[in-house]
Amino acid sequence: MTEEAAKASPFQVEADATAGYWRKRADTTLPPPDMMGAYMRNRPVPREPVEGRKAWIIGSGIAGLAAAFYLIRDGGMAGEDITILDTMRIEGGSLDGAGNPEEGYIVRGGREMNWNYDNLWDMFQDVQALELPEGYSVLDEYRLVNDADPNYSKSRLMHKCGQIRDFSTLGLSRSQQWELIRLMLKRKEDLDDVTIEQYFSPGFFETNFWFLWRSMFAFENWQSLLEMKLYMHRFLDAIDGLTDMSALVFPKYNQFDTFVRPLVTHLQERGVKVRFDTRGYDLDMAVAGDARTVTAIKIKEGGKDAAIPVGPKDLVFAITGSMTEGTAYGDMDTAPVLERGRHDPGDESDWALWKNLAKKSPVFGKPEKFYGDIDRSMWESVTLTCWPSPFVDKLKELSVNDPYSGKTVTGGVITFTDSNWVLSFTCNRQPHFPTQPRDVLVVWVYALLMDKEGNHVKKPMPACTGREILAELCHHLGIGEHLDAVVANTKARLALMPYITAQFMPRAAGDRPHVVPAGCTNLGLMGQFVETSNDIIFTMDSSIRTARIAVYTLLGLPKQVPDISPTQYDIRSLLKAARALNNNEPFPGERLLHRLLGKTYYAHILPPLPEPEASQRKAAEEELNGLLGKGNQALGTLIGWLERVRENLAARGR
Question: Of 39, 54, 218, 381, which sits with the fewest C-beta atoms within 10 Å of its C-beta?
Answer without folding.
Answer: 39
